[in-house]
Design goal:
heteropentamer, A alpha/beta (333), B mainly alpha (413), C mainly alpha (464), D alpha/beta (262), C: 464 residues, mainly alpha, MetI-like fold, D: 262 residues, alpha/beta, Rossmann fold, six-stranded mixed β-sheet, four-stranded antiparallel β-sheet, disordered N terminus, binds adenosine-5'-triphosphate, binds magnesium ion, binds phosphate ion
Chain lengths: 333, 413, 464, 262, 262
């Protein structure tokens, strides 16, 4: 007799698309959502939640049905454990689409000393236990590399709980670590110890966990001219008036270098879609098409500060959208 | 019995002592005044800073764009202007072309990407303009907007100067900020959706937490026998107040979403979760208020044959109401500003349409503020502050009624 | 019949029941009073009205609540029995999506069909909805009538309607107070299982007494040893929330309350009290920015100036100070109310002894108002413990075990939020640690509250 | 009962107490009191300050229930019904056994509302006009009407001490209880007001059972027909007032009423 | 002054009031009273309930300041100093002019702390032992010591009405003020306790100026040497007590003391 919006009955449905996940992909996803509504009169606006990649995966993999999201945004690839969790909950056919690239930028205040870094320097400055030779004693950049000024090391970066921090570890720290041959050997021998040595960040205040708010890091850099900040490339781009780039390996973070992967801190961005929802949720296909129409270099993706993927990747993704090819879990780590 | 003489109040020692007590009294009073002034000046500082940044968020820069409709590549029949026709007319592209003719190659950088919406609305309002040249005010791009209002990039400042010379630039009150919802372009976003979300959420919170909180306080203070059982209830309520809000989010997630299958991101669930969090505050404040009603009042009423329920609802409750309302005010204020538990139940989300009811997806003001504060575009800085001003206005309005009632009920006896 | 209509109808029935029962009671009582025996009449006629109205409404409402949960299932079943349902896909979700759409169209909340299959089901749906809707309405009305009639026959002058109605009031008050218990249990339950899993990975002793908190190590798979020592977090929580913030909030809040109730003119009080209450409502992001960008750098510069080593741009002091400001209203408003409620005769008694106002306040009013003052302080501490945004932005996330207020520390709640909202993994100790932290925090605050309860009981000075 | 006692049987007592003991926590305030209160006469309780008069009075309408530390033993009946029985409706009991407290405790409401409250909750007035009549009559009987008739809507707490006391008397009689317990109703009253209250008591006698606590022997002698003398929690002597005052049987009573005590 | 008045000059008065008017909001409660209070005699204020005795008493140590609606006009001096002068030290004034209120208002503290409160804030005790002496002496003088000596650390609010009243008297005299204002100090007391308080008053006379409000003519006659009769806010007659009671000059006074009033 009463309303039945409780959704408890067998006939639960939803007429809105729901996406959850990465805060990095969020700006692009929202832009796509907006364009989707503009291009499809009568469609309800998709709901994009910013939960972080891991949180999004957890929700995404909880099951198939109206109460579970259709799409997971991710600033890294799905992990094997997550894929298995999905499968366990009946989320079998998952479509993986790479939508673009993000750069992990290093920046300092315009008044800053103009540091020039390499993954090796960053690693030696930030590792908790560089090359497994005992606690990091470097106090200034000069301690790490004599060519650098004697300025106290101070890096504002993502907290250990964030996906962006994983990227920092993977893209920069591990590379710096592997400059040492012994470490490469260690990787083969003892993966755990290798990880600990190569990705663990010092906790003595030189590296400052700064929460998820990148604007705050930008502002803090303004107040601390000698500090270096690590955050999404788009924030560097937007704040060029107060910040300047810290080149890595002599490569500046620019649109081109990130897009081509020449810049070391580039990482791919994905969305994951449940195939089972394609037929049940109105407009889902159209939404994916809108993604595809906007991830080109002149599309909404770049307007929102991200970088378009190389052409071949885009092509492959476009095909996935069309054919709804499902992900083969065995390639995941 | 030994007798003592009257104290010599005029003696030098006594005089000195009293002078000292007066000094202490003055210090104490000054400390009180100082505390009030200091607290108020913190607030004033915050408010002034926010106003400074935020008031600009209520205005926007517009460019008067001359559109020669007959000459434009727009294919629209003035007699059949429907939403669908407008949606299919590819207005964004047409706007781009028109802007290029009017403003030159930099038009893209000068106009908001959503400028075409203004043109669409103009056509909708008066289809006859399709047959002539019309001047339509469209929002400027974020860069231009910033440059026009305060500090922008040098290029944009130059553009501003030039456009001003042409007399096409104007800054006016941004009505769409009060009527629109979340979006991706700072010139186009509005606070209405989040505002409505907060309104609905707070409504649910109030409807649930106030009666339950007051009822609990009454039960514990007036009826429950004082034994271990009431001690347990008391301690667990006090303890609930200390539970981090995100844990209420976890609870809401597992009970309201996973168990009861209520809709995700809905004001209903948000309100219920926040109600759990607000209730202890109301209970604690309420109990204290009830405790401070003198027992002689209860005796008087019981003595003429009032039932315990009548004593409570006709005497104790009215006298305790100011204190209960204080608890409600601070509890609701906290609920209004809360973001963490709402994340767990899906309210930290991009929601571009205002909710129609408590079961529709919604976000709330503090979440909107949080989301905007994390946006890349600098145009969002002033929008964030403007949203904070709206939140404070909401807070004031919400508390206004409670404060009015509190002042009304407050009596000293 | 639609939901609102039936509710309206029931409300109408309730009103009729109230009016007629009240009228009948009044008539009977007038007659009974004439006999002169006082106990011939027990309750006011209004109570009889409520008694009958409640019997009319409550059973029907309970039935409707149950029906609302049962009926959709019945409707769906009868639709599935329809031949048109044979063509539905087997896949459960698509199937329910189509059914849901058909229902939405049938009850008019959606105009057109996205899926062609659902169009065929609209008709059966409309029929089934109608059928069960009417059935529910009829049953509810029957219940309402039956309940009302039963109660109506009991209306007699000496019937104890007031006692019955009050019993219901009492029961609802009791139930309300149980919500707190249920919530508490719910919280414990939602923390317990995951905490248990956490403690099967990490030794509880290490967790409770370890002094190194470094969840990144666990996150990156270098094992759980030496990664989950929660002591620095608890220390940080106490340092920021219970020490620094309270050093700000208690004096400012209490003194403000005292000034406003005892010294300021009523008009000033009327305006200042709500003004200060705004401090509690300013969103924490605002405080966070204020703390991180204005207070923290200033404090660091100050610390460097006076030569303190290890001054960081994220400091416990910055976060604590700003948090203290935020919770001033918790102390000030609750203390204000309690002090204002102390009877005037207590003040008079003290003033007449030649006490100054400040002596009267500190020696008579505050002790008498103690429960309220302590209640406010406890609420304030609770709020401070639960705060995250300010800590993240101004005190950093580094778990240092230090008493240096210029150093960066972090709190339990902050870590819980970071762990729960950051990049989580399903089974890693890192995510589960959030639950364990929550549980331990819960237990610690519980113990503190028990102590506080004892203390207040002991020192309270009850007036009358 | 620890002491030998005058045996005073009353046929058909309105209230009777049997071996009532009251404890405040550990401390025993009433040590086993048995007494009968009838309709036809006013009973006065006298005794030195702190001897338990108020405490005993409060047991008669179960007001001691509201003191957390108080505990009552023994049996008290009203019209033969045990008022401490679980089946007893305490609310109705208190409506039937009205009370005027020792410390005047007006509600922080208007004078009118103070009086009207009782009749309203017991449904004694048929309407506004009826209520006005009740209020006026009660205030008149309490001897307060002339002083407050122009300010019925001022607060009851803004009255003088004696006025508050009379307001509380008016409030108690407004509900027309069967038994009226008055704890020093005239303590704050001048002789004229006192006379009015005594007149009221005379007027009520016969229709109501009345118990009055007083420190004023003359008053006890004037208004009461039975007097009970309490001392240190004991009911030392209970008898016909004239007997007690002229011919007390107990030494302690004699000492007290002749002022030789202490 | 609206009425002709007995002219009673006192040399060297301790306190004197000149044309004092008190208003509660619009309502005038005291209509212009002039009176002198000396050290050598006890002054009694008598008059019907609500006539303004308490109100006037409260003007003498400025306790009316605490009633928001109250407004005082006229001049009152203590040892020749105007107590309403801005330079007046109200704290010292109230310490010098002690007060016992009509409704007992013990602090919600222990009995001991109730008494010790005043001496402590005024620094009258040299130490714990000294304080114990003061507490005992004050309680003894108030006639309460024997009843409470075993429970000095129980709450003052858990006393009987009369005990509370004596506690408040003890509290007031513990600071040894120069003037003592007592508003019906014996209203809740039995004859024996009353006698003790009256004894106390006798004992204090000469060294302290004492004003006592009472409804008990006998008491006024017993303890006072000067009597002031108030009526409807007027000071109708002020004179030597024996004169007033035997030979009142005003018709109203006569009516009142002979009980023929009203
Ligand atoms: N706070 C107040 N506000 C308004 N009117 C008041 C207030 N206090 C007393 N009054 C009025 O002032 C008049 C004098 O009151 P006051 O208390 O002085 O009388 P009193 O002589 O002490 O009487 P009693 O013997 O009954 O105590 C009375 O009419 C009383 O109602
Ligand atoms: N709430 C209480 N808690 C503990 N003891 C109490 C309480 N109330 C009264 N008493 C004690 O019980 C005894 C009897 O008190 P009660 O009030 O009955 O005396 P009373 O005869 O009315 O005296 P009074 O004439 O002074 O009013 C006294 O010793 C008193 O101190
Ligand atoms: Mg008594
Ligand atoms: Mg008086
Ligand atoms: O939100 P993330 O992109 O850091 O997972």
């Amino acid at each position: 007799a009463c309303g039945d919006q409780s959704g408890g009955g067998a006939g639960a449905t939803r007429d809105q698309i729901r996406a959850v996940g990465s805060s990095t992909v969020y700006p692009f996803a929202t832009a796509v959502a907006e364009l989707f509504v503009q291009g499809n009169a009568g469609m309800k606006s998709p709901i994009i939640e910013s939960t972080g990649t891991g949180g999004g995966m957890k929700l995404f993999c909880a099951g198939v049905g109206a109460q579970h999201p259709d799409i997971a945004d991710a600033s890294r690839r799905m992990k094997k454990a997550e894929f298995e969790q999905c499968a366990a909950n009946g989320v079998k056919d998952i479509i993986e689409i790479q939508i673009g690239v993000d750069g992990l930028a290093f920046a300092e205040s315009k008044q800053g000393p103009g540091l020039k870094l390499t993954p090796k320097i960053v690693y030696e400055a930030l590792a908790a236990n560089p090359y497994g030779k005992g606690p990091n004693k470097a106090q200034t950049w000069k301690d790490v590399d004599p060519s650098l000024p004697a300025i106290a090391i101070s890096v504002f970066g993502p907290p250990s709980t964030s996906g962006t921090r994983d990227s920092l570890a993977e893209l920069i720290l591990e590379k710096g670590c592997q400059s040492d041959e012994a470490m490469k050997a260690l990787k083969e021998k003892n993966e755990d110890e290798y990880k600990a040595t190569c990705t663990r960040v010092r906790e003595d205040g030189k590296y400052v966990d700064s929460g998820e708010n990148d604007n705050l890091i930008v502002q803090k850099l303004g107040a601390n001219p000698n500090a270096v900040g690590v955050f999404g490339y788009s924030f560097l781009e937007e704040n060029k008036d107060t910040l300047k780039d810290v080149p890595i390996n002599g490569v500046e973070a620019t649109y081109e270098t990130v897009s081509t992967g020449q810049y070391p801190g580039a990482r791919p961005l994905y969305i994951y879609v449940k195939k089972a929802h394609m037929t049940a949720i109105p407009g889902l296909q159209g939404f994916l098409n809108t993604f595809a129409a906007n991830w080109n270099p002149d599309g909404a993706l770049t307007k929102r500060g991200m970088v378009a993927a190389p052409e071949d990747v885009r092509k492959k993704s476009a095909e996935t959208v069309k054919a709804l090819t499902v992900l083969d879990g065995s390639q995941l780590k | 019995m030994s007798t003592r003489n009257p104290t010599d109040w005029k003696s030098e020692a006594m005089r000195k002592r009293i002078a000292g007590r007066y000094a202490a009294e003055r210090r104490f009073k000054f400390a009180g005044l100082f505390a009030v002034v200091l607290s108020a000046s913190f607030l004033a500082f915050l408010l002034v800073t926010m106003m400074g940044n935020g008031l600009r968020g209520f205005t926007r820069t517009e460019i008067a764009l001359k559109v020669d409709f007959p000459a434009s590549p727009l294919l629209l029949d003035p007699k059949a202007i429907t939403d669908e026709a407008l949606a299919n007319a590819n207005l964004p592209m047409v706007t781009g072309t028109v802007a290029k003719t009017a403003l030159g190659d930099k038009a893209d950088a000068l106009l908001s990407p959503t400028a075409w919406i203004s043109i669409r609305d103009a056509i909708k309002a008066d289809p006859t303009i399709l047959s002539r040249t019309a001047t339509i005010s469209v929002p400027a791009s974020t860069g231009l907007d910033l440059a026009a209002k305060s500090k922008g990039s040098p290029e944009m400042e130059a553009e501003v100067a030039q456009l001003k010379q042409q007399g096409v630039l104007s800054t006016g009150f941004n009505f769409s900020f009060l009527t629109a919802s979340d979006g991706t372009d700072p010139t186009q976003v509005g606070i209405w959706g989040a505002f409505k979300g907060s309104l609905l959420t707070m409504l649910v919170t109030l409807i649930l937490s106030f009666p339950v909180g007051v009822a609990t306080a009454l039960y514990l203070e007036e009826y429950a026998r004082k034994n271990w059982w009431t001690d347990i209830i008391e301690v667990s309520i006090n303890n609930l107040a200390a539970v981090p809000s995100i844990i209420f989010g976890l609870l809401g997630l597992s009970i309201f979403l996973n168990l009861a299958h209520l809709p995700r991101s809905a004001a209903l669930v948000g309100g219920m979760t926040l109600a759990l969090m607000t209730m202890p505050v109301i209970v604690i404040a309420g109990r204290n208020a009830i405790k401070s009603v003198p027992p002689s009042i209860r005796d008087a009423a019981l003595g003429i044959g009032a039932s315990p329920v009548q004593v409570v609802f006709q005497h104790v409750l009215p006298l305790a109401l100011p204190g209960i309302l204080t608890g409600t005010i601070i509890g609701m204020a906290r609920a209004l500003g809360e973001t963490a538990p709402l994340l767990m139940i899906g309210m930290r989300a991009f929601i571009a349409t205002p909710p129609g009811g408590v079961t529709d997806p919604a976000t709330v003001l503090p979440v909107q503020i949080f989301l905007w504060s994390d946006e890349v575009s600098k145009g969002f800085v002033e929008k964030t502050s403007a949203a904070i001003i709206v939140l404070l206005a909401f807070l004031l309005a919400m508390n206004g009624l409670a404060i009015y009632l509190r002042n009304k009920f407050e009596t000293r006896w | 019949m639609t939901g609102p209509a039936i509710l309206l109808l029931l409300a109408g029935l309730g009103a009729i029941a109230w009016v007629s029962a009240r009228a009948r009671a009044l008539r009977l009582q007038t007659a009974a009073r004439a006999t002169g025996r006082r106990d011939a009449v027990h309750s006011l006629p209004g109570y009889h009205g409520w008694y009958v109205a409640l019997w009319t409404l409550v059973p029907a409402a309970i039935f409707l609540a149950i029906w609302a949960n049962v009926a959709p299932g019945l409707v769906t079943q009868s639709v599935l029995a329809d031949p048109a349902a044979q063509s539905l896909p087997v896949d459960a979700f698509s199937r329910s999506a189509i059914l849901g759409e058909a229902r939405a169209i049938a009850n008019g909340s959606q105009a057109g069909a996205f899926n062609p299959l659902s169009q065929g089901l609209v008709e059966p749906y409309a029929q089934a909805l109608n059928k069960y809707g009417i059935a529910g309405a009829v049953l509810a009305l029957v219940l309402a009538f039956a309940g009302g009639a039963f109660a109506f026959t009991r209306v007699r002058p000496d019937f104890r309607a007031r006692t019955r109605v009050e019993r219901l009031v009492m029961a609802s008050l009791l139930i309300a107070s149980l919500i707190a218990i249920i919530t508490t249990l719910g919280i414990v339950a939602s923390l317990l299982w995951e905490s248990f899993r956490f403690f099967s990975m990490v030794n509880p002793i290490d967790f409770l007494f370890g002094t190194k908190w470094s969840p990144q190590s666990a996150a990156m798979g270098y094992g759980n040893d030496d990664a989950f020592g929660a002591v620095p977090l608890f220390w940080g929580t106490i340092f920021i929330g219970a020490i620094i913030a309270m050093i700000v909030a208690i004096p400012l809040g209490l003194m403000s309350a005292i000034y406003l109730t005892q010294y300021a003119s009523p008009t000033v009080r009327k305006w200042m009290k709500p003004t200060l209450e705004m401090l509690a409502g300013v969103p924490t992001v605002v405080y966070g920015y204020f703390a991180a960008l204005t207070i923290a750098p200033a404090l660091r510069d100050f610390a460097v100036m006076i030569g303190i080593h290890g001054a960081s741009s994220e400091s416990a002091l910055a976060a604590g100070l700003v948090m203290g400001v935020m919770i001033i209203p918790f102390v000030s408003s609750m203390a204000d109310d309690s002090i204002a409620a102390v009877p005037q005769s207590m003040r008079d008694g003290s003033l007449a002894m030649g006490a100054t106002t400040s002596e009267t306040i500190t020696r008579v009013l505050i002790p008498a108002a103690l429960p309220g003052v302590v209640g406010g302080v406890l609420l304030a501490v609770s709020r401070a413990i639960g705060e995250t945004m300010i800590v993240v932005m101004a005190a950093g996330l580094a778990a240092n075990l230090t008493a240096n207020p210029f150093a960066s520390v972090t709190t339990v709640t902050t870590q819980i939020v970071q762990l729960l909202t950051g990049d989580q993994e399903f089974d890693s100790a890192k995510t589960l640690a959030a639950f364990a932290l929550g549980l331990v925090l819960f237990i610690v605050t519980l113990l503190l509250n028990i102590v506080a309860l004892r203390v207040v009981k002991k020192y309270r000075e009850a007036y009358d | 009962m620890t002491e030998e006692q005058t045996n005073l049987t009353i046929d058909n007592p309105k209230m009777s107490a049997r071996d009532v003991k009251v404890f405040y926590g550990e401390k025993q305030a009433i040590k086993g009191v048995s007494i009968d209160v009838g309709m036809d006469h006013v009973t006065a309780f006298i005794g030195p300050s702190g001897c338990g008069k108020s405490t005993f009075l409060r047991t008669l309408n179960r007001m001691n229930d509201t003191v957390a530390s108080a505990r009552v033993e023994g049996e008290i009946t009203l019209d033969g019904e045990n008022i401490y029985a679980p089946s007893m409706d305490v609310v109705q009991l208190r409506a039937r056994v009205g009370m005027v407290f020792q410390k005047p405790n007006p509600f922080p409401k208007s004078i009118y509302e103070n009086i009207a409250y009782g009749p309203r909750i017991h449904g004694l007035a048929a309407g506004k006009a009826d209520m006005d009549v009740i209020v006026e009559k009660s205030l008149r009987r309490a001897g307060l009407w002339d002083e407050v008739k122009d300010r019925l809507h001022d607060s009851g707490t803004a009255l003088s001490g004696g006025q508050q006391q009379r307001l509380c008397i008016g409030r108690a009689i407004a509900v027309e209880p069967e038994v009226i317990l008055m704890d020093e109703p005239c303590s704050a009253l001048d002789p004229i007001a006192t006379a009015k209250i005594e007149e009221l008591i005379h007027e009520l006698r016969g229709r109501y059972a009345i118990v009055i606590v007083t420190h004023n022997m003359q008053q006890a002698a004037r208004v009461s027909q039975r007097t009970a003398f309490f001392h240190l929690g004991d009911l030392v002597e209970y008898g016909v007032t004239s007997d007690i005052f002229t011919n007390p049987r107990q030494e302690r009573t004699k000492d007290y009423i002749t002022g030789r005590y202490g």
